[in-house]
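Cross-posting from the modeling subforum.

Setting up a comparison between two proteins and wanted a second pair of eyes on the formatting. Protein 1 (sequence, then structure tokens):
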Amino acid sequence: MTHVLRINSSIKGEASVSHKLLDRAQAKLTAAHPDAEVVTRDLSAGVPAIDGNWIGAVFTPAESRNVAQAEIAAYSDALLAEVRAADVLLIGLPVYNFGVPGQLKSWFDHLARKGETFQYTEAGPEGLLKGKRAIVVFTSDGTKFGSEIDFASGWVRQMLGFFGITDVQFVHADQMVFDAEATLKAAEAQVDALAA
């Protein structure tokens, strides 16, 4: 069975372009894999930022955590368990102010845990979430995908690679403000061309 983790991060919810393109990508995957299990994590309401209490919680052995630490770690552990269980990650990446939405950044921050998603070796960092595929839906009003002002797509690719996820494909509906209809059609064609 194929396990798909869908990450919605647009504050516009179902009205967003990234949501619509994620719907299309999900439909393609589930048509090819009718037994696929899809778990959706909606980040639109926000994700708690990591802080000193978070560090204290996640780096304290589970059996030694106090009640407050256990609550903090439980949320982060749940996010991590979803990613570990997934074969395919569908990630919505709406670009806000040239970068990654704060809630998506916080999601990655919760996942970036030494010994869980990466480790340091003599040869450098090694990702521990190998063998997964990620499809990232990049949407923007004015930022061109891959341009010098796109500080989002490269960062997401770097973070996924840092975790060991190197099979990463981007679908992009960029610069929507100039020709939304043509851009959306081109992005839908990109989704349709993805291998299921």
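Protein 2 (same layout):
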Amino acid sequence: MESQSVSISGSGRVSGGEYTQVRISGSGRVEGDVIAQEIRVSGSARFQGTVKAKEISVSGSGKFTSRVEADILVTSGSCGIEGDAVVKELRSSGAQRIGGSLRGHYVRVSGVLNVACDLETDVFNSSGRFEIGGLLSADRVEVKLVGDSRAREIGGENIDIRASSGFNFGFSLSRGLRFGVGIGTLTVGEIEGDHIHLEATTADVVRGKIVDIGPGCRIGRVEYTESLEVHPEAEVREKIKR
């Protein structure tokens, strides 16, 4: 028996089940667990149950009250997931909140991402703002700071954190940070990786093989095994070679 498709363009609710496509452009509620090839939300939708889909797109307002699994999740509106999320590819240009942990292969943030627990992925790329309540773990962490971001810990092989536009206005990055001139910052407890480049970052501890502490950084302690470079406009209170 072939799976059916369902569409809500006004106000309505449907039962959970297995669908080819779920489209909500009005105000809709899906009650029960859902398995679908495609879910598209351009209105307001609430999913009360676990959701498994090949592709989920939210350009309106979507709320998922339980666990979500998807190959691709694209959000340009507001999307809230109260449970854990397992998503191979997440592209968020809107506001994305996850109440549990996020696990995937590729995470791209150009809006706002909030993850209450851990985030584990192969590649983490951000030109927006993020707040990670636990560990951000990725093989590659590539961040262009826009607004203020936070994480409890960051771990990876290659970690590259850069200020957005600090040198383009004729003043130093550290001076811009001091006077609050529209430059994003990162605040994190610990950072650990092989190759680390940091700008505009405040951290308690940084551990790595090759470490480059750039302008605008305030670091409590750096532990390194191969090399350490510290920019004149950075502050490192303790340096330890292991």
